[in-house]
Structures are given as structure tokens and as C-alpha cells.
Write a structure and sequence with these properties.
Length: about 250
């Protein structure tokens, strides 16, 4: 990839509500883009950084936020082809595990790989493909600089989880469970664009309370924490030379 003199950072969100606190904190403005797809764009500019925010948009048939891996794939392809970012950040909310000592509102940086926990393909040769295990950028330096914890992120297309899903999550040693990041990682890997994720915890996978109830109750806390970390991440990246932005962030 040929990089410009300014760093181009793209944050990808699934839900408008997930993105709004971050958009407010950055003072981002809407960017009009002619497209047949429902992706919504916002932008802001710093001294050395151009920041793009892409949100999946609203499903035209059902009238709800476009969540899940299909919409994430669509948005990531659109962003790469139309804006050519130097680095992609999958941002949003996620589930965590109480027994790992995770707290509500805690923000995780992604570890080196992204997994799927609900792609079960019972055909010889496709098992590894089903799990994904797509590589992301090495975030160790960023985690140390910002005092953040890193963890494997696993993605699936259900808010809840089945017993088979839980088995796959345990096998991947996941620390955060979302519905988009692995799909973003796949597209970014195919396009050779550095990518990582920041995910704020709204609910506990191993808590007796229903996931949807936890998600709704803790949504504001998590998205406020996410906005703060997104700002700090952008500031840190803006201090780096463009040549340093690659597989190690």
C-alpha cells in the first residue's frame, strides 16, 4: 500500500448508538458519499491524521442497525475501496467473561488473531477456514503505551451463544465476544491493510442475567469508555511515523 503524508485512520462501527459518543468526542461531521449501500460516513482531521468513521447503517427491509458479519464485510470493503485507509480499527461493544476478572466498561485491544465461534463446517479441509483465525496487527506497543489489556476477540452472528459456541470460545481463549471483528479482519487481511480492534464490554457471557438485558443496561457506560479510548488511540497513532504503521501498531 502506498501511504500518504498524513495518516488515514478508519474506525468501523456496527451501530449508530455505539459510534455517537465517539463522534461527539471527536467533533466529527457527516461526510456525504454517493453509494448504493447504506454505510454512513463521518470525518474529522487532526494535525497529522485524517480520521474516518464508517457505520454500517440501517437495514432497508427491517429498519434496524445493520449488525453482524455480513454488514461488517460490506462496510470494510466499501471503506478500503473508497477511502484507502492506512489502518482500520473495528470499534464497538462486546461481551466478556466475569471469571477472567473483566469489568463492565473495560476496553480490550485485540490480540494477534480473530476467530469465528459459530462457523461450523463439517467438511474435511474447511474446519480451519470455519474458525477463521485471521491475523490482526500486533498491538503490544499500543497496549503498553495506553495501559490497556489485550485479548483474543471471537465473532458470531448471535447475541447469545449455544453450547457449541461456548466450546469454540474456550478453545480460542477469547476475552471478548462480538459480531463483527473477525469479518473486518478477514477483509483487511485480503486487502493487506493493517487492522486491529477496540471493544468495550457491555455484558458477561458467564453471568446468569440475560445477555440482552445486560447489553441494554450497560450500553451507555461501555460506549462512553470506548469514546475515550478511541481518542487516546488516535492521538497515539498520530504521533507515529507513517512507515511505522504496519503489522505492529
Amino acid at each position: 500500500m502506498v501511504m500518504s503524508e498524513r495518516l488515514r485512520v478508519a474506525f468501523l462501527f456496527a451501530m449508530q448508538g455505539e459510534a455517537d459518543p465517539t463522534l461527539d468526542q471527536f467533533g466529527a461531521t457527516a461526510l456525504e458519499v454517493s453509494s448504493r449501500y447504506p454505510v454512513r460516513y463521518y470525518q474529522t482531521h487532526a494535525e497529522t491524521t485524517d480520521v474516518l468513521f464508517a457505520i454500517n447503517g440501517i437495514d432497508r427491509l427491517h429498519g434496524v442497525d445493520l449488525i453482524g458479519t455480513q454488514a461488517a464485510t460490506m462496510t470494510t470493503i466499501q471503506v478500503i475501496e473508497s477511502h484507502e485507509p492506512d489502518v482500520i480499527i473495528s470499534a464497538g461493544t462486546a461481551g466478556g467473561w466475569e471469571h477472567h476478572g473483566t469489568s463492565i466498561g473495560q476496553v480490550y485491544l485485540s490480540d494477534d488473531t480473530f476467530h469465528f465461534h459459530d462457523r461450523r463446517i463439517g467438511l474435511t479441509g474447511w474446519e480451519a477456514y470455519g474458525r477463521g483465525s485471521y491475523p490482526g496487527a500486533n498491538t503490544r506497543k499500543l497496549a503498553q503505551a495506553l495501559g490497556l489489556e489485550r485479548g483474543v476477540i471471537t465473532s458470531g452472528n448471535s447475541l447469545g451463544q449455544s453450547d457449541e459456541d461456548r466450546t469454540a470460545m474456550i478453545a480460542s481463549e477469547a476475552r471478548a465476544k462480538d459480531m463483527e471483528a473477525a469479518a473486518v479482519a478477514w477483509v483487511a487481511h485480503e486487502a493487506h491493510v493493517p487492522m486491529f480492534a477496540i471493544k468495550a464490554i457491555t455484558d458477561f457471557v458467564d453471568h446468569p442475567a440475560h445477555t440482552a438485558q445486560q447489553f441494554t443496561a450497560n450500553f451507555d457506560t461501555a460506549t462512553a469508555a470506548l469514546a475515550d479510548i478511541a481518542n487516546r488511540v488516535t492521538d497515539h497513532l498520530g504521533q507515529r511515523r507513517l512507515g511505522d504503521i504496519g503489522t505492529s501498531i
